[in-house]
Specification:
About 25% of the residues lie in helices and about 30% in strands. A six-stranded mixed sheet has the order 7-8-9-3-10-11, with helices on both faces. It has a five-stranded antiparallel sheet with strand order 2-1-4-5-6, with helices on one face.
Amino acid sequence: MPNITLSGIAKSYGGGDYAVKNLDLTVPDGAFMCLLGPSGCGKTTTLRMIAGLEQPTAGSIAVGDRVLDSVERGLYVPPEKRGMGLVFQNYALWPHLSVRENVEFGLRMRKVPAPERRARAESALRMVHVDAAMDRYPSQLSGGQQQRVALARMLAINPTVLLLDEPLSNLDAQLRLEMRAELKRIHEESGTTIVFVTHDQLEALTMATDVAVMNEGELQQLAPPMEMYARPANRFVAEFVGSPPMAIVEIGPSPTGLAGSLMRFVESHSGQSVVPAAVGVRPEALHLGSPPHSVWSEEATVEAVLPAGSSWTVRLRILDTELYVLSYTPVEATAGQVLTCWTDQMHLFGADGTRIPSWDKTGVGA
């Protein structure tokens, strides 16, 4: 399957408002691409335009040399001729058909002979581990099993691209975990190109090979998940990706308090003139205890310790600012106790919100 290329894509529903604005995006062959962002950011609209369910207002969509949409040239290929499979948020299974018959449905519409239809349906059901339930009806299955059947129905038609529109949002936490692992396994086994829409950053980070973060119809960053986490392109990505979110400290013209402390550290450790508008620190990059040499540190007052089994969240007050520390080792502290808080990882952002590239020669800068 060649790359999917979106060039200058825009989508407006009238009134001058754009759901997607001037989007350039390439989905590599065999990738597990996640479109990530808050509600209303344009990710589902983008997926539907790739599927052919929506037509762009401007721009073009191509698969290799084959143009599927081109506003300028007046070209449009309907959904059924794109060779793509779409799994919706609701599973859309026929209640009066058995699991096997549901999976065979698309093949029946394509007039595939019955023996081949049955073999492909059973193979797809084995791939998603629901072959033992192929003679049951959807009402007799759990939510996770129904989701797997919907996937099997798409896999049976051998789509060149599998499009998933928040398919895990209706599942409980345990089933979501299982299905994340299943989707990753299916992608590795089948090699099918997958484009996945979600607002859940955990799904994006754990499954995707590439993540495209969107906001207000615009692409904010495209990168492998851990690269995006370590080097967010701007403040929106930095605050959206990560839980708890990155703490952002605004740096004014004459910073005081925590902002002043951070700024003095940046100035003393920068090999060049760096004037950030904000400094960001992830909660897991903050540590309590004796700091090593050449890191930022300040005294902090403990306000609350929140144990969560495998991790501890500590709310601190450092000078004039409240921050959260995320620790994966037990925190023996009580409210009111004064500890030293330190970090060796900071993110600097300019006035336009863009992340300032690596600034520290000693390894302190992120």
